[in-house]
Amino acid sequence: MRINNSKNNINFKNLSMLSKPLGMLYNSNATIPTLIIESGVTLGRTYEANKTSGKLEASERFVEQGTSAVIWLWGVQMLQKLGETIGKRILKRDNFNFDIGFDYLRNPLENLDKIALNFKAANILLSTAIATIFIGFGLPKINHFITKNKLKKNRVKQKQDISKIPTINEFKNKTKNISFTSGLYNFANVLENNSTARLLMTDTGVVGGRFLNARSKSERIENPFRDISSIYFYLFSTGHTVKLLNKLSSNTDIDPKVLTATVEMLTENLKKSNLTDSYNFIGKTLGRANLSDLRKVDELFKDKKTITLDEFKQVFSKFSDKADLMAKLQPELSGKQILSKIQAHDIVKSGWISNPEFLHSVYNKATKGAYKEKNRYVSAKKVEAIRKSIDNFILQLQREAQKKNCTIDSTFVEKIAKNNMRKNFAFYAIGTAVSIFALGFLIPKIQYMIRRKITNSNEFIAEKENK
Predict the structure, then answer these.
(1) What distance in Å separates the CA atoms of residue 294 and residue 316, rounded to the nearest whole number?
(2) What is the secondary structure of 438-467 as a DSSP string?
(3) How far is CA 89 from CA 77, 79, 84, 122, 304, in A?
(4) Is residue 376 part of a domain?
(5) Disulfide-capable partner of 410 in 5, 101, 174, 267 (CB 3.0 to 4.6 Å)?
(6) Is residue 304 part of a domain?
(7) Which domain, by its residues, includes 130?
(8) Helix and strand tally (H, E) in the chain?
(9) Residue 33: inside a domain, yes or no?
(10) Tens of pLDDT along 373-403?
(11) pLDDT by residue (tens digit) across 44-85?
(12) Predicted model pTM
């Protein structure tokens, strides 16, 4: 494999029209990807209900699915905003714009006022609880009430009124005092910043609520089956599909913002370097380290996830300057600058991608500036995944160049990056289609098979009761 330095100035910001839409798919709190799935699911379940038992059940499914989607996509956040507005007035705090998650690498809680911190955690948990109780207990009651009213207009025989929706006093009696632990802080942070987690939480209430509000033995089996089996396809199937397809195609699952920054860095360095073969390319990009230094790093991190900057510099004084820059990639923890093991390994390596300035740029872009803010939380797990995705893309470049026996230059890097984006966009589209098919069509079909098995009929229970 030959490696050549391209003189072309590549503007990677305009690399692909897929960059922005693909970026949304890598954002755990993005609304549009989930809205696409929910729209497909709502239409699919409405269609299957109409085909199986008619317009009445189709109407109930549409209201149930559509309202649930609106509440967990926007309702929880609106409740949180309302709570924060109240909190600002009562507690006389100006700002709740901070994160409350933490781990061994970052802990914004150290910089926060405890009253504001506890209020925000309580507000997030209470907002989620209210939405969950409504979807699981209130919405089924409302939906059943609407269905009965429709039947009353078309049938002489009337049924007894549906029981009332839980009152505020009943809700208060069921709610216990909340005592906060570090686990609850992280749990609340996930609910605030991850739309998938909000769905999982509300689904927990939905499963229980719809079971208790079931109108027949058939519904008591149908509803839990539908809701429990849906959880995997809502939360995990798209990611698993993307991961599988990337593995089968030897492609890299990498955030387009990270990919963009990586290609720009490679382009700049390729212009300055005189590389001749693949060994030099990997050595320059991933970096190489003395085995003795790597062993010393492992010894420093024995039974530890982080060490202080001073501890590192006592052993590796020759890397002092680079270590100083690397430690600035995260705020101080308990008043001390710290390093993770992966950062220590990067310090003793000489690779382009282990440059602290490059890593700072990558993390900052991938987290929309949250990484550099002391009151924001970016998990160590996410940082490590970003870092590994860069390694994997470098290795992908090497594989593709060896396979095609072609030159690694800026043009080649840009070409592979474009192909990477196209593949990941296609894989996410396939993953989304799989989720919609399973949620909107496959699960409802099995649900109605269960109904036929139990009742020997496709008839909707509400219509059966009102005959």
Answers:
(1) 11
(2) IIIIIHHHHHHHHHHHHHSS---HHHHHT-
(3) 19, 16, 9, 16, 43
(4) yes
(5) 267
(6) yes
(7) 29-243+433-465
(8) 22, 2
(9) yes
(10) 888 888 889 999 999 999 999 999 999 988 8
(11) 888 888 888 888 888 888 888 888 778 877 888 888 889 888
(12) 0.75
